[in-house]
């Protein structure tokens, strides 16, 4: 019998590698996963920005069509999510930049940074949208 499956008397057989039953989700782990997800979402969001720019360069009627889609409640929800993903990914990148300097890597500090990334991204997203509505005149 190989070492990986052999057990000593009285010992229970454990998995060969860590898996979801072993891990307890912690804020830094969740932020790592969300950072990857927001990075992928930014690809889709950037395609939407490119579509809007192409529509602006194509014709007035096509631009109005795309603008109408983006101005709908669903379009605004998608754009709000894109804004949050952009800001969250940026703050996560800044967090990693700080870690690259070798600072703020302690367990408590990194957990605080993870929570700050969430709070900061939500706060900045709301502020950006408030500023956008104010710039439009209400």
UniProtKB/TrEMBL annotation:
Localization annotation: Membrane
Membrane-spanning intervals of the chain: 33-53, 73-92, 113-135
BP GO terms, sorted: tricarboxylic acid cycle
Keywords assigned: Heme, Iron, Membrane, Metal-binding, Transmembrane, Transmembrane helix
Cellular component, GO, one term: membrane
Annotated positions binding heme: 89
UniProt cross-references to Pfam families, sorted A to Z: Sdh_cyt
Presence of the UniProt keyword Glycosyltransferase in the record: no
One term of GO molecular function: electron transfer activity
Source domain of life: Bacteria
Keyword Cytoplasm among UniProt keywords: no
Topology with respect to the bilayer: Multi-pass membrane protein
Cofactor(s) of this protein: heme
Stated role: Membrane-anchoring subunit of succinate dehydrogenase (SDH).
Quaternary organization: Part of an enzyme complex containing four subunits: a flavoprotein, an iron-sulfur protein, plus two membrane-anchoring proteins, SdhC and SdhD. The complex can form homotrimers.
Annotated family: Belongs to the cytochrome b560 family.
Listed name of the protein: Succinate dehydrogenase cytochrome b556 subunit
The organism's taxonomic lineage, starting at the top: Bacteria, Pseudomonadati, Pseudomonadota, Alphaproteobacteria, Hyphomicrobiales
